[in-house]
What does this fold into?
Amino acid sequence: MGDDRGRTVAGHSDGYEEFAASRAGHLFRSACLLTSGDTHLAEDLVQETLGRMYAVWGRATRVDNPAGYAQTVLVRVFLAHRRRRSSGERPAALLPEASGRRAAGTPGTGTAEAVGTQDDAALRLDLLGALARLPAKDRAVLVLRYWEDRSVEETAEAMRVSPTAVRVRSSRALAKVRELLGGSITEFAGR
It folds into this structure.
């Protein structure tokens, strides 16, 4: 009897380790975008996602696209995390009073001159800063639609909202990102 149980556990993980190893990097990059560059939270989200995928692995292998299903699980884990009361607490290097004075001169304020003279690393930081200022659901829509290249319907299904809600959120979120970047988004596309 003990041998049967061991085979069941081993059989349950058939292919899971390979799947997790091949998808972890992509899930982490998506999680970094969702969390606006918070790598520690991104690691936690990926770990939670892979844990949930393991729990349903026998059923998930029957899914047409396990990688897409994992992305959906990641977004849902992220949104569930954002709903928790403790998700707004973050350690800060500066006291709030000091960071308010410093923020006026930092990159990411959206001025075209500051963005135009920075290298690619600074550009990424500006984009992550703009994403960080968006509500969690708007950020999730942008990541799914433009980073993951999902259709409106796939995004709606992953977020459990209507396709109309995805289109509206996408439009408003893009407008907000353009506003935060000072309307210089065309400069970024030309790089």
User: Anything to note?
Assistant: Residues 1-10, 98-118 have pLDDT under 50 and may be disordered. The CA atoms of residues 106 and 114 lie 9 Å apart. The radius of gyration is 19 Å.
